[in-house]
Amino acid sequence: MAKKHIDPKPTGNISAQPRLHQRAREIQAYGTVSYLLPLELEEPVRLEMTEQLNQLLADTMTLRDLYKKSHWQVAGPTFYQLHLLYDKHYEEQDELVDSIAERIQLLGGISIAMAADVAETTQIERPPRGREEVPVQLSRLLDAHQIIIRQVRKLAQRASELGDDGTNDLVVSEVLRRNELQTWFVSEHLVNVPLVEAKEPRATAGAA
Ligand SMILES: [Fe+2]
Q1: Rg of the chain over CA atoms, in angstroms?
Q2: How far apart are the first and last CA of the chain?
Q3: Percent of the chain, pLDDT > 70?
Q4: Distance CA 197, CA 174 (A)
Q5: φ and ψ of 64, to 5 deg
Q6: Alpha carbon distance 59, 44 (integer Å)
Q7: CB 97 within 8 A of CB 111
Q8: How far is the CA of 147 from the centre of ligand 1 (A)?
Q9: Side-chain-facing half-sphere of 129: CA atoms under 13 Å
Q10: What does pTM read for this prediction?
């Protein structure tokens, strides 16, 4: 009996077969905003806000990935606590990434997404692929937080001036507050206090 083949191109447009390897023109170019949105925010405002939010997004994605790199590559006596802390901060930064990206989309813009585009955009210094010691890991993370915090304060002020209260609220309540808190947790690890014996013990009471 002759074997039956499913015709991949049956007449008409309906077929049970998947259409693979498709490409087509973009439906919206990066750096543009759709203008028909009932948000009561003018197109120039949404253009400026989405551009600045994309910078913040690229830097936040880079900081997030720096935390994961540090989580994997940490070494030394504080391995376990830093391994856990770095991953906690990674997860929190990942939530911020999603909030910022979705804010850009809801303003009618396009969020930066892929690693190569993020690498071209971020202001955070690229670390080496290899392992670095703990104080260097911590310093890199703090430098990245500082860049983001500086940028967020400017962005928040501009969003307020332009009447984009939603962006102002997001970057202050979520991004700024979270980065300030993480900065505290990381920077306390760079305070040089003794682990076992006090460096300058006070004279005991009654001593001559
Ligand atoms: Fe892990």
Answers
A1: 25
A2: 111
A3: 92
A4: 40
A5: -55, -45
A6: 23
A7: no
A8: 26
A9: 0
A10: 0.90
Average pLDDT, the chain: 93
Q: Which two tokens stand for residue 72?
A: 């994997």
Q: 96: CA distance to ligand 1 center in Å?
A: 19
User: Cα separations (Å) of 157 from 105, 135, 171?
Assistant: 21, 33, 10
Question: How many other β-carbons are positioned within 10 Å of the β-carbon of residue 88?
Answer: 13
Closest to 96 (Cα-Cα) out of 140, 47, 104: 104
For residue 129, how far is its CA from the centre of ligand 1 (angstroms)? 18
Query: Which tokens sit at 112?
Result: 């930066």
Question: What are the backbone angles phi and psi of residue 179, rounded to the nearest 5°?
Answer: -70, -35
Ligand 1 midpoint to CA 10 (Å):
49
**CA of 92 relative to ligand 1 center, distance in Å:** 14
What does the alpha-carbon distance between residue 206 and residue 208 come to, in Å, rounded to a whole number? 6
Q: Are 179 and 95 in contact (CB under 8 A)?
A: no
Kindly give the distance from the C-alpha atom of residue 95 to the centroid of ligand 1, in angstroms, as a whole number.
17
CA of 149 to the centre of ligand 1 (A): 26
Following DSSP, what letter does each residue of 2-39 receive, concatenated?
PPP---SS-SSS--SS---S-----SS-TT---S---S
- Which of residues 11 and 159 earns the better pLDDT score? 159
